[in-house]
Amino acid sequence: MNFRQRNLNTTSAAGRLTLKPAPAWAIVIGLILFTGLGSLAGAGSVIRLTFPLVSFAAGIFLYFRYPIFYIGFTWWMWFITPFAARLADYYSGSWDPIRLMLLGPYLVTLITLVVLAKPFSQTALYNSIPFILAILGVVYGFFISVVLTSPFTAIRALLDWLTPILFGFHLSLNWQYYLEYRQNLQRTFLWGTLLMGIYGIIQFLFAPEWDRFWLINTKIFTFGKPEPLGMRVWSTMNDSGTFAIFLIPGLLLLLNSSESLRFPASAIGYLALFLTRVRTAWLGTLVSILVLIGNLNLQRSIRIMLNMIVIAVLVFTLSSIEPFAGIIGDRLQTFSDLEADTSYNDRQRIYQGQLNSSLFEVIGRGIGNGVTDAGVLDVLASLGWLGGLLYISGILLLLFGIFQGAKVYSDSFINTALSSCISILTMMLGANTLRGPTGLIFWGFAGLAMAGCKYYSHQRNSQHELIA
């Protein structure tokens, strides 16, 4: 890949918003206009078919011409495509049960498959072992799924399992551009947290018609009622859990940020997180903050805690206002009586009923044929002993490498990424958070953290060579 572009700031030195590089922004704006105007015109059936292909074409152009910009584009595709799909459905007056538009982010991310076609040096191959092990585990599960289920089920599941790993692998391999990747990601999640948080609050207060239309047609009423103050917020994404998990790294990054928007963005983000009413994400956020503070030096820990005090005051002020206070308070009270909690009891039954069978799935059931709402069991049941060993070994090696780097290199992002990854792993007691959109958080942040470790290691070795 030809990395010709080095600096892709969208803000000038004076702080004004600029749209550079112009060709990349022209592609993005064109895609937005095409999708938005087509949806408003009621051409939902056309948009559903063309959006994935147009997005894929845009992604290819950006990947090869503006590869740093491509990373931000990929994240935004995951942020807003479900929202675009709801608009297309609503204005066309028809419901797409296949959710074809949601294929767009997968295709855009799958472009990173080209990393496997690149020649690997011996050093790059050694550093890539965690990703290669995870990929081999997933490929094993894919072939088992083809045999035991159907090719369609296997391919659909392969997109969920493999795409996030490839994205992280791509970031890790291109470690030379770590600083640009990091800046791009920090900016992306600042604006993503702010804008998705704002829309989430609007969704809760007013229940826009397209969101009501989606909720009524999906019949997933665990997401709430299709009325104002009745929805469990999912913002621009496809469900409350995914939205909540996407907020976690964004909120962590804001704790370390010096941007002027960090406090309002954090307050809005935390309020939206509370309105999702996803308790595992609340606990995951707490875990991530504790891990982050525990891994930083005293000076940075104090800075983060001071930021947290300001944010806590803002969040408490907002969440104590009705109608937010009643909704959030009722959900918090469920922690005190878990025995009467339906979702907690359902998950207990899943583990009691599936634990033994999942542990003794020697061959595995294949991906797409695992256990729902129990992430740990899903990995064991889907991949079997061999695939599971490869996949879990890859994850452990990845975390070990990041942990070592976090101790050695003074980069708060590496610690933030480690905290986000550990948080996501703790939520594996619920749904499988290592695949699909939430998997992109784990593998993407892990891949970029590994890129940071390699970048600083190379810098240190170069300095030693100069001294010698």
Short description:
73% of the residues lie in helices and 0% in strands.
Structural summary, described in words:
- There is one protein chain.
- This protein has two domains: 98 residues, no CATH class; 339 residues, no CATH class.
- Helices cover 73% and strands 0% of the residues.
- It is built from 18 helices and no strands.
- The protein is globular.
- The two termini are 33 Å apart.
- The N terminus is likely disordered.
Fold topology:
Layout: H1 22-40, H2 44-65, H3 67-92, H4 103-110, H5 122-127, H6 129-148, H7 151-173, H8 178-206, H9 209-218, H10 240-256, H11 262-276, H12 279-295, H13 298-319, H14 324-333, H15 342-359, H16 375-408, H17 412-426, H18 436-467
Helix pairs in contact: 1-2, 1-3, 2-3, 2-4, 3-4, 3-8, 3-9, 6-7, 6-16, 7-18, 8-10, 8-11, 8-18, 10-11, 10-12, 10-17, 11-13, 12-17, 15-16, 16-17, 16-18, 17-18
Protein name: Glucose-6-phosphate isomerase
Keywords: Membrane, Transmembrane, Transmembrane helix
Transmembrane segments: 22-41, 46-64, 70-88, 100-117, 129-150, 157-177, 189-208, 267-293, 305-328, 379-401, 413-434, 440-457
